[in-house]
UniProtKB/TrEMBL annotation:
Source species: Formicincola oecophyllae
Signal peptide feature range: none
Classification via InterPro entries: NagB/RpiA_transferase-like (IPR037171), Ribose-5P_isomerase (IPR050262), Ribose5P_isomerase_typA_subgr (IPR020672), Ribose5P_isomerase_type_A (IPR004788)
Superkingdom classification of source: Bacteria
Name by which UniProt lists this protein: Ribose-5-phosphate isomerase A
Length: 272
């Protein structure tokens, strides 16, 4: 139903009092705009924490892309860093911006990794990651980092992990139906094969498939992560328990920083 002139003169309600559904396009666009600004804000704050001489892990996704762009600006201004990217696309972007890439053979320890997330559990700082499909390299880079800064807009924090987001699970294509059955036995209520271009299954940079597993709210993330770690056919999964050292949550104007150390899980708020 659309609102005609009389409806508008009547506060959006037709003469009969029936509710009119006004198209939300403008409002939705505004919300998306706010979210983009928030992501850019969080990204900038984290990129500005990087210091000269550091080895930096570059995450994947839209928020991480803003962070890499900001690092590129800083490199153009003279910041000397080397980076390990978590995906081919981010590696290409970083190189195009003049950021020097390195690898684990040369630098097995990363000073700081900066990445987005799909969910951040308030308090524990456990994460779900991988809706962008880069979870394996993201976890390897985060695991090698002394400090792992997660950058999100305020749509990402949740009370319980799994509230809104399925757990992406990277599986070997060989025998994936058997892996699918094992994941169902672990309690996945709904499993979706991630789709790529042309109706084909999505393939990660490592040549694997992704099964998005809806476990519902996850009471014990570390326990489920352990079960997934031991599931044959699973290469990696998107539960990152106890890995984030810092989380930067951005709204349009306000920033919250949650830090695991020195006071574990204590939210520190400041307004920028
Ligand atoms: O885990 C990821 C990619 O594998 C991303 O960090 C996650 O999906 C968040 O993406 P965005 O910053 O675009 O919201």
């Amino acid at each position: 139903m659309s609102a005609d002139k009389d409806d508008k003169d009547n506060g959006g309600k037709p003469a009969g009092g029936e509710t009119v559904f006004v198209p939300l396009t403008a409002l939705a666009a505004e919300a998306v705009h706010d979210q983009v600004r928030a992501k850019r804000h969080a990204a900038r704050i984290a990129a500005d924490m990087v210091e000269a001489g550091m080895i930096v892990g570059l995450g994947t996704g839209s928020t991480a892309t803003f962070m890499v762009e900001r690092l590129g600006e800083r490199v153009r201004q003279g910041l000397a860093i080397k980076a390990i990217p978590t995906s081919n696309v981010i590696g290409q972007l970083a190189q195009s911006l003049g950021i020097v890439l390195t690898d684990f053979a040369t630098h097995p320890v990363i000073d700081v990794a900066i990445d987005g997330a799909d969910e951040v559990e308030r308090g524990s700082l456990h994460l779900i990651k991988g809706l962008g499909g880069a979870l394996l390299r993201e976890k390897m880079v985060a695991a090698a980092a002394k400090r792992f800064i997660v950058i999100v807009d305020d749509s990402k924090p949740v009370a319980t992990l799994g509230e809104r987001t399925p757990v992406p699970v990277e599986v070997v294509p060989f025998g994936w139906h058997a892996t699918h059955a094992r994941l169902e036995k672990l309690g996945a209520q709904r499993i979706t094969v991630r789709q790529g271009a042309g109706g084909m299954p999505f393939m990660t940079d490592n040549g694997n498939m992704v099964l998005d597993c809806d476990f519902g709210p996850i009471k014990d993330a570390a326990h489920l992560a352990g079960l997934l770690d031991r599931t044959v056919g699973v290469v990696e999964h998107g539960i990152f328990p106890d890995m984030a050292t810092d989380v930067v949550v951005a709204r349009e104007q306000e920033i919250e920083q949650w830090t695991r150390n020195p006071e574990p899980n204590s939210p520190k708020s400041r307004v920028n």
